[in-house]
TrEMBL record:
Residues 38-258, 379-631 form the Ion transport domain. InterPro entries: Ion_trans_dom, Volt_channel_dom_sf. Its main location: membrane. This is Ion transport domain-containing protein. It comes from Apteryx owenii (Little spotted kiwi). The keyword Secreted does not apply. It comes from the Eukaryota. Keywords: Membrane, Transmembrane, Transmembrane helix. Pfam families: Ion_trans. GO terms for cellular component: membrane. The chain crosses the membrane at residues 33-52, 58-78, 99-118, 160-183, 227-256, 378-396, 402-424, 436-454, 497-519, 602-628. It is a multi-pass membrane protein.
Length: 742
């Protein structure tokens, strides 16, 4: 979920670094970004050893890979000991992830020693510990998002199991019916093999049919015999493909949302508990209540959030100490974590340089009319139409001289657009670090201008033609059509969701990496060397059968799938990606089963269940939840309070005004410039504030806010022990209040 301020409070609340006790200094060091980056580096270095170990993509000596692995395991051990130093002993030994890391280190060292010893005596063995390497990626503290995803799978698995068992019962029943219907009719497949005479083969074929990978091929022998038999397959597909697969998605989504809500509830209660503890450490008595003094509050905020500006800090103080009493009460103090989690943009008011150097010309009636025209939505719409027309011209015959002349016209129009915008808006603002589209447009236009001039010059002096380079520039310019999509409200919801899910896709990327890694290692151990790839003109024996006579006349060999093998780590990943896409996955399963044993198909079925049925459905569930949030979540109570205070101080600017000004669409960082004359109409003060728009927040953060809003503000929740043991079915406790805890 979105970041909470409470961990930072506990980390930074020790005071000045120079005066810290050793344990607190170790906590600082443990959470330093360089240490965390180094941990990730060694985690991925350890995972990447599979590329260099036998069977290797790029072979390295066993001694080299062994030393690197030992180094990685040493780093992991030090990191774990470091974590033990900053964690209470009883908590450390109760934490399952720490036990998993220790066991993985011991298993890896043991396997490495045994494998190395056997290798000395030329005894071949299996590096079975390689499948535990992803444990380091999952279980170190930095990977809490991946652990949460795995918890979702673990919590969802029991419910999926019941549906899966019912689904398999249906497949087995239909397989039995298929055996009785078609087994005695002497039908043959397109390859000339007996049709539906082996029960286990029928089960596999019908399971594949659920994925539609072998449709309609598996039906055709029966359909050719009698069209009535098509009803059997139609009924099967409706029940198992459409109904059961939809039930799978419904069960996964329901459990995903239920457990996600429970995770956020735990985080919310934990945050409130931590904030109450912090208040109790800093509180002083003021009359009949306990408070935190303004000076201590400022010092704390500066330690917790050193990157925010002084003006932002003063804004938060005005919100927390609304009546300017010089202290912050308990309720306002506990809300500090939420205040810090809301991105407030500080906009500096700056005048255009031309307004300072040539004020009479820049502020003339003609200049104001021109700038007003550029700021008008009609100007944006006009250039949207020009981009569309330009896209049509790019698609036309490029050899036509009229098309060539038209490109010069479009280039001139784009340059005029850039110049008018720079004239209208303050240049440092227009080319701000977050103004992606302004930079994109400018670079593409001037790259196209340079390429066009260069191409024209070379064509006029030599036979050289660089039209291909120019084509690339034209294609990049067509990408500006994305801005047209973004300007339509209905499309913007979709675009916002796509932008918001990008950070969370990294979590699912890590989840996929773990699954791929484990199955790739297992696949290499099972199928390494069973299938070989030979060039088209090779004269090697059995080259047409991928080096294995067991594949003679098989669909795998006829389709020339020989390069899809498990002979190294990279090839294994490619095969797993193809299996994830599902199409033709049964051809892979049959091919590898032919060169080994028929039960090898279970490997491919297991991958399909784990990756396609479970993980892909969880990802789909996340997408559904993301769109639900995008359509439903409104401003939180804390955001409303911040906006009200901004307006009370006369330092606010409405989001609608910013939306009208295309200049500021992407201004979502801590410090920005705002044109003070001729642009938007900010107040006369030097700074204005704005709440960051919803489009630049992650879906995780929005989900956290949506679920957290269901918990009453005065509810601190249960004790830490009860919080950790909360289950999705537990009722939300509401018997503890701020007043009771005071």
């Amino acid at each position: 979920m979105g970041s909470l301020a409470s961990p930072h409070l506990s980390r930074r609340g020790c005071g000045n670094v120079a005066l810290l006790p050793s344990s607190c200094w170790l906590y600082y060091l443990y959470n330093h970004w360089m240490i965390q980056a180094a941990t990730y580096f060694f985690i991925f270095l350890n995972l990447s050893l599979a590329v260099f170990e036998e069977p290797a993509v790029y072979p390295l000596p066993f001694l080299a890979t062994s030393l690197i692995e030992v180094l990685c395991l040493l780093v992991f051990s030090v990191r774990l000991m470091h974590f033990a130093k900053v964690t209470p002993r009883n908590i450390f030994w109760k934490d399952t992830k720490n036990i998993c890391v220790m066991v993985a280190i011991l298993m890896s060292l043991t396997d490495l020693a045994v494998y190395g010893t056997l290798r000395i005596y030329n005894v071949r063995s299996i590096r079975w510990s390689r499948i535990v390497r992803p444990i380091f990626l999952i279980n170190f503290a930095e990977s809490r998002q991946i652990r949460r995803a795995f918890r979702s799978i673990r919590n969802t698995f029991p419910e999926i199991t019941y549906v899966f068992l019912l689904f398999m019962f249906s497949v087995l029943m239909f397989s039995l019916m298929a055996l009785k219907l078609f087994g005695e009719r002497n039908l043959q497949t397109a390859e000339g093999l007996p049709y539906f005479t082996n029960y286990l083969e029928i089960v596999f074929d019908l399971y594949v049919l659920v994925t539609t990978a072998n449709s309609p091929d598996v039906m055709m022998p029966a359909f050719d015999f009698s069209w009535w038999y098509a009803l059997f397959f139609i009924t099967y597909v409706i029940i198992n493909t459409y109904i059961f697969m939809s039930v799978f998605l419904a069960v996964v989504y329901n459990n995903y949302r239920k457990h996600l809500k429970n995770e956020i509830r735990k985080l919310a209660y934990m945050k409130r508990r931590k904030m109450v503890e912090a208040f109790n450490l800093l509180k002083e008595e003021e009359g009949a209540e306990f408070v935190v003094r303004e000076a201590q509050w400022k010092q704390l905020v500066k330690l917790v959030a050193p990157d925010i500006s002084n003006s932002h800090r003063e804004l938060l103080l005005h919100i927390s100490d609304d009546e300017q009493k010089g202290f912050i009460d308990k309720k306002s103090f506990v809300r500090l974590a939420d205040l810090l989690n809301i991105q407030v943009i500080t906009l500096k008011i700056r005048r255009h340089p031309l307004g300072q150097w040539l004020p009479h010309i820049y502020n003339s009636a003609a200049s104001q009319f021109l700038r007003g025209m550029v700021r008008h939505r009609g100007f944006v719409w006009t250039y949207d139409v020009i981009i569309l027309i330009n896209a049509v011209f790019i698609a036309l015959d490029e050899e036509s001289p009229y098309i060539s002349y038209a490109e010069w016209v479009f280039l001139a129009l784009y340059i005029i657009e850039i110049l008018l915008k720079v004239y209208t808006y303050e240049p440092r603002t227009f080319f701000g670090k977050n103004q992606f589209w302004n930079w994109f447009d400018t670079l593409i236009i001037f790259a196209a201008l340079t390429a066009t001039i260069l191409n024209t010059t070379l064509k006029s002096t030599t036979e050289y033609n660089s039209q291909q380079i120019l084509d690339i520039v034209f294609i990049l310019r067509v990408l500006r059509l994305i801005r047209i999509v973004d300007s339509i409200q209905r499309f913007r919801v979709i675009m916002n969701t796509l932008i918001n899910i990008v950070p969370t896709m990294l979590t699912f990327g890590g989840l996929t990496l773990v699954v791929y890694y484990v199955f790739a290692i297992i696949g290499m151990e099972l199928f390494q060397g069973k299938i070989q790839f030979f060039p088209a003109n090779s004269n090697a024996p059995h080259a047409l059968e991928c080096g294995n006579p067991a594949l003679k006349d098989s669909m795998f060999a006829r389709a020339k799938y020989c390069k899809n093998n498990f002979n190294n780590f990279a090839s294994s990943f490619i095969v797993l990606l193809e299996l994830t896409v599902v199409n033709q996955w049964h051809v892979f399963a049959n091919g590898f089963a032919n060169v080994t044993v028929q039960p090898a198909k279970l490997y491919f079925i297991a991958f399909h269940i784990v990756m396609v049925i479970i993980i892909v459905n969880i990802f789909v569930s996340f997408i559904l939840e993301a769109f639900f949030v995008e359509y439903s979540v409104e401003k939180s109570e804390v955001e409303t309070a911040i906006e009200q205070k901004i307006q009370e101080l006369g330092m606010g600017i409405q989001e609608e005004e910013l939306q009208d000004e295309k200049l500021l669409d992407n201004m979502e960082s801590a410090e920005h410039d705002l044109e003070g004359e001729g642009g938007t109409k900010p107040p006369a003060k030097g700074l204005v504030f704005k709440i960051a728009s919803k489009r630049y927040r992650t879906v995780d953060a929005l989900l956290q806010r949506m679920f957290e809003a269901e918990i009453p503000p005065e509810d601190e929740g249960p004790s830490f022990e009860e919080i950790l043991n909360l289950s999705p079915t537990d009722a939300v406790p509401s018997n503890v209040t701020f007043e009771a805890a005071a």
